[in-house]
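Good morning,

Attaching, inline, the backbone tokens for the sequence recovery test we're adding to the shared suite. The designed sequence is right after.
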């Protein structure tokens, strides 16, 4: 009768395959986590830059409106900002809220952008929305006007 030789090579190969798969999964998970973190960082930076640009754009427009009111007290200037079209092209959804010293822009999509800007507002006392709630960029433009009776700058969607 012949004796069969005991061979461990199949078991060793199987263990090697399992270790190789485990190491591969760890490396791929690490790469995915790193790339996801980088993308989230880029999105947050983009949202912050968009919020800053929009806030400064609103600030310049409101300062122009208030300069006109100071120079021509009997005038009723109205500014129409086409911010909705640009934000749609950039994939940005934001909300604007007036404060007593300026305004605040917060991005809703992508999340993470927020910028508050303050500036001298005489003869106005504050910036308000017509509804009292923050304006959300759902329409193609925002209208800015000065309410002489209340002495406030009003923001409304058009």
């Amino acid at each position: 009768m012949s004796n069969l030789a005991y061979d461990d090579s199949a078991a060793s190969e199987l263990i090697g395959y399992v270790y190789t798969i485990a190491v591969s999964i760890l490396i791929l998970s690490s790469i995915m986590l790193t790339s996801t973190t980088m993308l989230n960082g880029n999105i947050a930076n983009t949202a912050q830059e968009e919020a800053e640009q929009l806030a400064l754009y609103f600030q310049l427009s409101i300062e122009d409106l208030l300069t006109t009111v100071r120079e021509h007290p009997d005038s009723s200037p109205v500014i129409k900002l086409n911010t909705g079209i640009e934000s749609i092209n950039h994939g940005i959804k934001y909300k604007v809220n007036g404060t007593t010293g300026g305004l605040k822009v917060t991005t809703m999509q992508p999340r993470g952008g927020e910028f508050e800007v303050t500036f001298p507002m005489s003869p106005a006392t504050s910036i308000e929305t017509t509804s009292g709630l923050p304006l959300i960029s759902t329409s193609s433009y925002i209208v800015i006007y000065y309410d002489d009776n209340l002495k406030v700058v009003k923001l409304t969607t058009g």
